[in-house]
Design a protein that fits this description.
Belongs to the IRC22 family. Keywords: Endoplasmic reticulum, Membrane, Signal, Transmembrane, Transmembrane helix. It is found in: Endoplasmic reticulum membrane. It is rod-shaped and about 155 Å long. The protein is 27% helix and 30% strand. The chain is of the alpha+beta class. The strands form two sheets. Strands 2, 4, 5, 6, 8 and 9 form a six-stranded mixed sheet that branches. It has a three-stranded antiparallel sheet with strand order 1-3-7, with no helix packed on it.
Length: 260
């Protein structure tokens, strides 16, 4: 009876020891010795994530498993530090078979863009690698970080260029709208002033002091007899130069003579 009891205890102890050994072997086979860590640059000593900018971390991966491992991707997330609720999954940086050399610390940059609510958040980063068609995930970073807004400066070149570009676009759009919807005044056509007619000047020729070709023919008819002027001088003036009174008197005398 005692022998059977001792034998049963021995079998139980051997089974327990065998189970522990198998568990250790399964852990060794399931988790190759590949470690990873991440850190912010030296100029970011307070581990701040700045909104509106690209934030970078350096991930160091070390392969001490003695196996041929390849890097698949680096991924991360932001969670609430108090409740653990997911805030946002970060960019997945895929490497698709990048070899992880044995016994060498490989530094790999990881960059992500931030547009999160300012405050305290928990940042987690993981390195996913592959060995013989099996994928494993190793945690590289787990810490609380601060999300902050960028510092404003009137001498920020990027900000000034952004304002200039926006102002140029708005100005061009406003000008096109004004040209399209506001009626424009039509400019009247200038008419050329008529050229002043050149006056015709008569050149004085002959004794009369004029050119007869410019005078109508009925004005050139001379009287039949010359009239004697007072003082004994005979007038050599043509009939067109007689005054209106003299012409009227001559006509009256002619009519009177006909009646007699």
């Amino acid at each position: 009876m005692r022998f059977s009891t001792v034998l049963g205890a021995a079998f139980s102890l051997s089974s327990l020891l065998l189970g522990v050994v198998r568990a250790e072997e399964s852990v060794t086979e399931g988790e190759p010795e590949i470690t990873a860590s991440a850190a912010f640059p030296e100029d970011n000593a307070f581990n701040q994530i700045v909104n509106g900018r690209k934030n970078a971390l350096t991930v160091t991966v070390s392969n001490k498993s003695g196996l041929n491992a390849t890097l698949v991707q680096i991924l991360g997330s932001l969670t609430n530090p108090n409740t653990g609720k997911l805030v946002k999954n970060l960019t997945e940086a895929k490497y698709n078979g990048f070899p992880l050399l044995q016994d060498i610390d490989m530094q790999i940059p990881y960059v992500f863009y931030s547009e999160f609510k300012p405050g305290e958040h928990r940042l987690n980063l993981w390195v996913e690698h592959q060995i013989d068609d099996k994928k494993y995930r190793v945690e590289a970073y787990d810490s609380v970080v601060s999300v902050v807004e960028p510092e404003f400066s009137i001498f920020d070149i990027k900000l000034i260029l952004t304002y200039l570009i926006v102002a140029g676009i708005l100005g061009g759009a406003g000008f096109l709208t004004y040209q399209s919807y506001v009626p424009q005044k039509k400019k009247g056509k200038k008419t050329a002033a008529p050229a002043a007619s050149t006056p015709v000047t008569a050149t004085a020729t002959g004794a009369g002091g004029y050119e007869e070709e410019w005078i109508p023919a009925h004005h050139l008819k001379k009287p039949k007899s010359a009239k004697k002027a007072s003082g004994g001088f005979t007038s050599g003036t043509s009939g067109d130069e007689l005054s209106a009174a003299e012409t009227s008197g001559t006509e009256a005398r002619r009519r009177k003579g006909k009646k007699n």
